[in-house]
Amino acid sequence: MAKKTGILLAMLLMSYFSFSESKEDSLLAVVNAQVEVEKIPTFILLFKAVYRSDVSKSAEYLAKAKAIEEQNTDSVLKAKILYNLGLLEAHSSNYDEAIKTFRQAKEIATITGDSVILADILNNIGIIFDDKAEYPEALKYYNEAYVISKKIDYTGGYVAVTTNIGTIYAKQGEMKQALVFFKEALIIHKSLNRYGGIGNSLNNIGLVFHYSGQPDSALVYLIKARAVWEKHKDQKGMAMTYNNLGSLYIKKGETEKAKMFLKKSLVICYSTDDNFGVTQNLNQLSSLYISIGERDSAIYITKMVVDSAKKYSLKLNLKIAYEKLAVLYEEDENYPDALSYFKLYTATKDSIFNESKSKEIGKLEANYEFEKQLEEERRLVESKKTKLENEKSRRDNLQYSGIFVFVLILFAFVFMSGKFSMRPKLAEGLIFFTFLLVFEFCLVLLDPFIENWSSGEPLYKLLFNAILAALIFPLHAFFESSLKKKLVK
Question: Mean of the per-residue pLDDT values for the chain?
Fold first, then answer.
């Protein structure tokens, strides 16, 4: 199952950007015409344009993006800037920094209530943990993004995270769950008439059926995906689905069809400089030639895999190729070559293992440091929140005290008004205004308790207001009657 999942992982959704020099020039023209706060997304595109070819330029664009972020004070915009900065860091494989940046953006977006950016942040944190093969953690963030996107009807975020959840389940071998989410994504893409999403969803469903042992169902969906890609002349999509059809036909024992589709995919991968795709197709072709007993072709193709894997540092493919060559030469009783490739296989396997262990140790150290920093950030946020709450409480208390003193002065004036000559209508108005103010003051004072007791229900709130008015009315009548008697005297 692990090998199948590894192949599936390789063939599931992949996306990348490629920009020409003219594209970079166009983006520079755009960024020069923008105000500062609009430049972050453009710097992301500029980073993508040059990060493979010019490290210093990519670092320069990252520094400019950070400078803008540090100068900005608007909370809503700051969340968006931090989100884009996190994308930039993630794109440069600086995952630990990206997670820190995304989490800062998440804190702000949660406070400002920007649900769209919050869903995107959660989805991208999930993608990072997905890339790091920390699937339970990735799934946790994907599910949070899924719930928010669905609740606010954010279609773009909803369909993206739905596909991501399906991919996670597929990588973990939970094919039934994967199928549910891939089919859900297909429905959404069809409603939006997005051919790319439709093609990818059909391809993913086909793969799920393939690795669930249902080749006939897999073939139906892969042929549909092929039709979508060919209709729109999408080279990348065609290469991906041709490869998957080749793999499926190998499993069905239809070797000629398998060879045809793998070679079609290989030609496209060469023409589009898809290095991983080239290596993957060569690897499958070598396995095909081994299975049908064409040993010379198998050795020749496997050596091509070695060259390609070395060139592009694809160690897993290199390990598999060395193992194949060791077995092939051993079966041909060519023991010196068999031993040579076995040693290379062992050395590559050990190298992969050591790198994996180093990454795990580094991950533990990074997680420890990150948790310390996160705890400090939480403490600072909590401290700031407490300070703001105390300031608000102090301000509210001062205002309540001021209102109370003003009401007392009014009551004193009402009591003393009997000593002055005053028209009855004016006295009634003064008493009415005083008690109206008392009523409103009581409402303001009791509002948090009324809100809690009534759970926000308008009918219950009206009932509480009516009870308060009923309690104040006798006092109003008493004071009005007393004042009138004094004025009559």
Answer: 78
